[in-house]
Design brief:
mainly beta, three-stranded antiparallel sheet, Metal Binding Protein, Guanine Nucleotide Exchange Factor, Chain A, globular, 1 helix, seven-stranded mixed sheet, about 130 residues
């Protein structure tokens, strides 16, 4: 079981299942929504995630994407893509122990900022894993 929440503690969650698709995303949407050069995410099955304190506020960043965050402190918490309704992505750095779901690759590396260098040896996909090129 993984546990986490926002910076101020207003929103807390648990994940009762193994994380999958742990990645460091370099897309411009993630960067801008989090105010960071990249965002680490992991995926979980919707039925394995429950909010135990508060609920994230949400905003629709595109037709298919709903992003969750703490309305009190602004912490990025979740990402839901309507094309994969049984999955939710959780911001890895919002975990109490972010080491428990360390990224295993880089996605949208084609949008990586020129000054973001990685020497971690992880696969890097120009866009998504399914589009290949890692």
């Amino acid at each position: 079981m993984l546990q986490g929440g926002c910076f101020c503690g207003a929103v807390r969650y648990v994940v009762d299942g193994e994380p999958f698709n742990s990645t460091l995303c370099h897309c411009s949407d993630c960067r801008r929504s989090a105010g960071a050069p990249a965002v680490a995410w992991f995926s979980a099955r919707m039925e394995q995630v429950r909010f135990t304190k508060g609920n994230p506020a949400t905003y629709r960043s595109s037709e298919q994407v709903l992003r969750g965050f703490c309305a009190a402190c602004g912490t990025t918490l979740s990402y839901q893509d309507g094309r994969q309704p049984d999955e939710i992505d959780i911001a890895t750095a919002s975990l109490d122990d972010p080491e428990a779901a360390a990224p295993r690759d880089h996605t949208f590396a084609g949008e990586r900022l020129s000054w973001m260098h990685s020497g971690d040896g992880l696969p890097a996909y120009p866009r998504t894993r399914s589009e290949g090129g890692g």
